Amino acid sequence: MGFWKTLCAALAVAVLLGSAPAEARFGKRSKPNTSDSKDSDDKDDGRKEHRATPVGRRASDAPVRSSVRSSGIGVGWFDVLFISGPSSYHRRARAEVPRGARAPRPAPLVHLNVQGDSFGDTGGALDLFMALDGQRWGMDARVSGIALNADDGSDDTDRLTLLDAHLTLSPWSTERGRFRLEAGIASAHAPDAIFVGPSLAASLEACIGPSPFDVEARIQVVPFPHRQVDMQAGLALHLGALNLRGGWRTLYLNDGGHLDGVVHADLFSGPYLGLGLSF
Fold first, then answer.
1. What is the pTM of this model?
2. Per-residue CA distances from 35 to 21, 39, 40, 41 (Å)
3. DSSP per position, 84-135
């Protein structure tokens, strides 16, 4: 229960910050504002140098204000569910089992997926991920390349790259679905900084009755040195080993003020479509 309470608190903070004015993007240094500099000089004749704060350590006098960019789409209740690599449970679930016999357990499965995300006028992302599921243990690796319109009014493009690798444990694994707990390491490659920290995740896949559809959900949280909450939820249509996926993704990033003493954060939200293979 503590994990879910922490998650809800993180989501609440992300939504509240989403209405604040933006100065710079996650992991990108703030550009000095000439008018602000002039006002500061009028108030104080002594000039102070604003030095950057090393990654992993936050200055004690760092400004409290936060700069957040949002795609303009709020976080809905459906965003509490998140996507994971689809699997071929339906083939196994529909297999005929003799009366009185136990349904066979899923054999090791390999998932290969590509996914495209749209964040409206803000930009978009392309995701690649693969997973290996045994009866209880497995692994999951993902890379997300994000291209965003520059936040300074120019025609430039800001690029972010998110990487993570997890070991997975499946407390529930049957022919009808799977629930995973994940732990590993994640990195965020921003325009002016690289963050590396621990990563926790949980994911769920479950068949919808006798239909070829799955409900799939995943959440990932990186608590430090930066803050990252990555949430996806949707449906998958299984056509043999091929699956088509669609749903909604919400991504929150916060550099914790490690770059220049000012907290910069981004909130992206939008639909996604994906294509995968499970065998």
1. 0.68
2. 16, 6, 9, 10
3. -----HHHHHTS---TTSPPPPPPPEEEEEEEEEE-GGGEEEEEEEEEEE-S
Give Cα separations from 243 to 24, 147, 213, 229 (angstroms). 38, 26, 9, 26
Amino acid letter, residue 231: M
pLDDT tens per residue, range 186-218: 999 998 899 999 999 999 999 998 889 999 999
Write out pLDDT tens, residues 51-93.
333 344 444 444 434 444 444 433 333 333 333 333 444 544 4
3-state DSSP assignment of residue 186: strand
* Structure tokens given for 100: 């009185």
C-alpha distances in Å from residue 143, one per residue of 36, 67, 130, 180, 273: 39, 26, 9, 19, 16
Alpha helices in the chain (DSSP H): 2-17, 34-43, 89-93
